[in-house]
Amino acid sequence: MSNIIETKFGTLVNTNKIAAGSASSIKKNGAFYIFSIRMNHDDIREYSFTNLARAEYMRRIMIGHLEEKIRVEMKSSTKIK
User: Fold this and answer.
1) What is the pTM of this model?
2) Is residue 80 a contact partner of residue 13, using CB atoms and an 8 Å limit?
3) By C-alpha distance, which of 58, 68, 71, 77 is closest to 7?
4) pLDDT digits (tens, 9 = 90+) for 14-73
5) Which H or E run includes 77?
6) What contacts 24+ positions apart, CB below 8 Å, involve 37-41?
7) How far is CA 44 from the centre of its chain?
8) Which helix (H) or strand (E) holds 38?
């Protein structure tokens, strides 16, 4: 399945890049590795882990979930290329 979606305005959008841009990088704060994800303009979720590998893995998973959410929301009003 392609990540490229054409919006109703005719522009092509890569959902993977949109989702990755909505996630912050992982930062160490004390004993925790922290990142946040902006689900929409007023919903920002912050996650913290004690293990860097676990934080990196969960960040990839959450970006995937956000990408699927964006794709489903845009699917009803757009064409998938």
Assistant:
1) 0.81
2) no
3) 77
4) 888 989 999 999 999 999 999 999 998 899 999 999 999 999 999 999 999 999 988 888
5) none
6) 37/62, 37/63, 37/66, 39/66, 39/69
7) 11
8) strand 32-40
